[in-house]
């Protein structure tokens, strides 16, 4: 997984009824864009250090523009 500042980290709900979490990557800890990431969660405006698991994926700004067009 690789990301850039401004990309979104999406974590799918792993259990029935669990909501998808979306946050903006605000800081990279590795220069190659690999995890962990500092993420500002959109639903709570709180920042955390995240080591994404298999239920997570990165949505680039370009991908987001395509899906919202």
Description:
This protein is mostly beta strands and 69 residues long. Helices cover 12% and strands 38% of the residues. It contains 1 helix and 5 strands; from the N terminus they run βββββα. It has a 5-stranded antiparallel β-sheet. It is globular and about 35 Å long. The chain starts with 7 loop residues before the first strand and ends with a helix.
User: Which stretches of 5+ consecutive residues score pLDDT under 50?
Assistant: none
Element order, helices and strands?
A: EEEEEH
Indicate the proportion of strand residues: 35-45%
What oligomeric state do these chains adopt? single chain
Structural class: mainly beta
Q: Approximately how much helix is present in the residues?
A: 10-25%
Question: Strand order within the widest sheet?
Answer: 4-3-2-1-5
Number of strands: 5
How many H/I helices?
1
- First CA to last CA: what distance? 25 Å
Structural Rg: 12 Å
- On the 0-100 scale, what is the average pLDDT? 90
Largest sheet: 5 strands, antiparallel
Judging from the principal axes of the Cα atoms, what is the shape? globular
């Amino acid at each position: 997984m690789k990301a850039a500042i401004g990309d979104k980290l999406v974590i799918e709900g792993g259990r029935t009824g669990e909501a998808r979490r979306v946050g903006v990557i605000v800081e990279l800890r590795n220069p190659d864009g690999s995890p962990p990431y500092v993420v500002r969660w959109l639903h709570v405006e709180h920042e955390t250090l995240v080591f994404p698991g298999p239920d997570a994926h990165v949505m680039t700004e370009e991908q987001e523009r395509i899906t919202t067009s």
